[in-house]
Amino acid sequence: MPSTLPPLPASLEATRDHHLAQWAAALEQSALAPRRDELSARFEQELPLVLAASDYVAEQLRRDPELAWRLVAGERLWRPLAEGELRELLQAALTEVANEDQLAQALRRFRQWQQVRIIWRDVLDLAPLQETTRDLSDMADACIDEAYHWLYGQCCASLGQPLSRDGVPQHMVVLGMGKLGAVELNLSSDIDLIFAYPEAGETGGGRRSLSNQEFFIRLGQKLIKALDAPTVDGFVFRVDMRLRPYGDSGALVFSFDALEQYYQSQGRDWERYAMIKARVVAGDQQAGAELLAMLRPFVYRRYLDFAAIDALRNLKQMIQREVQRKGLQDNVKLGSGGIREVEFIGQAFQLIHGGRDRSLQQRPILGVLQTLGANGYLPESAVQELAQAYCFLRDTEHALQAVDDRQTQMLPTEAQGQARIAWMLGFADWDAFRARLDAERACVAGHFAGVIADPDEDEADLQSPQADWVPVWDGTLDEPQGLEQLEAGGFADAPSAWRRLQGLQGSPRLKSMQRAGRERLDIFMPRLLAMAAEQENPDLALERVLPLVEAVARRSAYLVLLTENPGALRELLVLCAASPWIAEQIARYPVVLDELLNAGRLYRPPEPNELADELRQHLLRIPEDDLEQQMETLRYFKRAHVLRIAASEIAGTLPLMKVSDYLTWVAEAILQQVLLLAWREMVARHGRPARADGSRCELDFIVVGYGKVGGIELGHGSDLDLVFIHDGDPQRDTDGDKPIEGSKFFTRLGQRIIHMLNTQTVSGALYEVDMRLRPSGDSGLLVSSLASFSRYQRDEAWTWEHQALVRARALVGCQQLTARFDALRAQVLGRERDEQALAREVGNMRQKMRDNLGTSATRAGSTADAFTAAQLFDLKQDLGGIVDIEFMVQYAVLAWSCRYPELLRYTDNIRILDELQNAGLIAGEDVSCLQEAYKAYRAAAHRLALQNQPGKVSGDQFHDFRHGVIKLWQQVLPPQQPTTEPQG
């Protein structure tokens, strides 16, 4: 006996005994009575419990006692069906079908058999909810598809075969909507269907030709009859076709073009909502996939679709009015806190965010809820509560329908029915069940009330401030009154704020707005002014946010986003007031406003593996040939994460070293995918290049990062210093239809990578790429083989190029080639050098840089004693600055790694300095001085970048750090006599 079922209530014992007696009598009257001992003991033990629960099961066994033997065959009552097993059983049941009447009978008897099996497993808790709904949906899929193909053959025989204009045979596509589409059918669901066919044409081979539409209309009518018409054996499924275009007044079947045109020109918001769950359940699966791809832009807008909020809010209000008007409180689907409200919560997020976040483009509601939690749209606690409530409500729905296979979601009112439902769900009595049900529904209703709620509802404290600012924006106040209001609101320079508002009002972009957009702006602006007045510096916040408002004026969905999400607007004002760089980035790329919706995610940096996986998942959902969308996804990924990094840096939740780590991980994740996209494109076009041994390359290519990306020290706006290396045979041809030499293949691969990174789109460029550190610089080959790179580094490279190699590392690409590059780097850097000559060459190069790039004070030869506030300090290039520290580290690696190979382990300055201390080459206090100075300089440079200011500070800042760096420089690299340009 299942542990979830309590003892059978006394009120149900008579029902059980009555059904058992009827079963026994029916068995005695059949020829099966002598075979009863063939039924397993487990069947006999479980039968009374199922009969107590379900009058439908009792009736089916009474009418067809042989059903019991079919149920226990193959242990199918006590195990999940294997994939495809249910369809195989139906196909076997249809083998002797010769006409439509026999088809109808076979389908209905198959449905009865499977319905009893599914109810049995559900009542005894032998199957989880997802298995029950999947089995019911699989049964519907099999019945629809097998009936369709049988009827298609009959129709072709009598009417001819439908053909495209090119003479290609056509099949119909059957879309399942609602619960069927989502693989969530309940025990007594209707099935909502839409019929379509690929293209216009005529039948061929019949007595007379018909249009394809007429053929498929006749076929569709026969299919509906086969499934829906009541007979002595009941029905298979009730079929509802009202979700098709124009509902009952529309054609039964539409061509793909007609469907696309309808949804593009006339599709309504509720149809978008319904189409989320559309799935091909029968007919031509390949053509169906093409149809769904055609309709996807109708369902999921390309970017954030906050314009759908009004429609969703209207739908929500309709749901609420329907509950109140129809007295649906005892309906577990349609009542307050019911199944429909859980589904609405998930689908609202899908409609708004699904165009950009393709992980939301899924059908089952439990999967949607999990994604909402995983991606930060809803708190995990809310997701768990909604999922638990949904499962309980669906279990209740199944219990209600298992009784007599009736389509109901209404709770019973009579004591006998209440006792039965409570017992089936594992409760001792009705009161205990009802308490749990009410608690779950109250929880759902609370979450439902909060979804796309009007932000002004239940926020009386916000009404007054916003109302106060309406006259400032709508022109009710004249200038003196407006200035008075602004001053009272905390604006220090009220005239400037007034002029900015008037300038926005007169902007050509605002004047060309459509009425709906202008209405949204007029709702948004008072909220913006009220919230700006709450900021520490209202003037600065307003000054920096207004360019964004103007930029998105004609894409007013962004205004709706900020209006509907006061928390996002507050985050926007805080970030823009803190950083003009952030304000400019958001104004240029407003699509990243979505990141402000989740403050927890905004300030939580992911790990590198999470970053790479996130980007990979986004790209997996895009067709391989849709390069434009892939490029946009890469750019959004970068913009979004750079915003999150800057926000965390401003909030102080991300220290400098982590900021650089995070920026570098973002770059590596993007480079990984860019390399894969470029490689896939090149191989598709030309085939794979060859190695020296004649075997074919599998991405024998690496992207080597130098400078900041190599040293894991990227900053905001940093470009990428890259070198491309391959390990193919430059002479051998590729193996594709359009073969080219290996050297050309790898050169074009490198060009494609640079193009993807550099190309300006509406979302900007990914990165500026600098390739000048490759062998021979701008005059050298774009891509080098490892062998030629090795020769150059050993025989031709200048000392400064070996300095650059200190911070070089393979970022992405072939692991084996990466290992060989690392070994080569170690050999080149670790060879023994004349330390005096090396010191002279490094010192001369550093002096040249100071002379060309430093401030006037440094170029004039100022000493540490002469630093004054009047002299700017270039954090990077001036005496005692960042580059001095970098050159000392590079000198140390080149001079001493021959004896201390551990100096080659890392490419970032901080950890190399740690190794120098561990090896006893530089004293601990000196290493600390260099590390603290380096971090302080870089932190200041980051702050200045976020303020859109150059990396220079007052000359009297960082005195102690500069003194320490200069002192160590003089110890490690004392002044040298100039020499001719040295070679490595």
From TrEMBL:
One of its GO terms (cellular component) is cytosol. It is an enzyme of class 2 (transferase). Residues 314-451, 873-948 form the PII-uridylyltransferase/Glutamine-synthetase adenylyltransferase domain. InterPro entries: GlnE (IPR023057), GlnE_rpt_dom (IPR005190), NT_sf (IPR043519), PII_UdlTrfase/GS_AdlTrfase (IPR013546). Residues 466-984 are annotated as: Adenylyl transferase. Residues 46-292, 571-823 form the Glutamate-ammonia ligase adenylyltransferase repeated domain. It catalyses: [glutamine synthetase]-L-tyrosine + ATP = [glutamine synthetase]-O(4)-(5'-adenylyl)-L-tyrosine + diphosphate; [glutamine synthetase]-O(4)-(5'-adenylyl)-L-tyrosine + phosphate = [glutamine synthetase]-L-tyrosine + ADP. It holds the Pfam family GlnE. GO terms for molecular function: [glutamate-ammonia-ligase] adenylyltransferase activity; [glutamine synthetase]-adenylyl-L-tyrosine phosphorylase activity; ATP binding; magnesium ion binding. Its cofactor is Mg(2+). Gene3D superfamilies: 1.20.120.1510, Beta Polymerase, domain 2, Nucleotidyltransferases domain 2. Its EC number is 2.7.7.89, 2.7.7.42. GO terms for biological process: regulation of glutamine family amino acid metabolic process. The keyword Electron transport does not apply. Involved in the regulation of glutamine synthetase GlnA, a key enzyme in the process to assimilate ammonia. When cellular nitrogen levels are high, the C-terminal adenylyl transferase (AT) inactivates GlnA by covalent transfer of an adenylyl group from ATP to specific tyrosine residue of GlnA, thus reducing its activity. Conversely, when nitrogen levels are low, the N-terminal adenylyl removase (AR) activates GlnA by removing the adenylyl group by phosphorolysis, increasing its activity. This is Bifunctional glutamine synthetase adenylyltransferase/adenylyl-removing enzyme. It comes from Halopseudomonas pachastrellae. The gene is glnE.
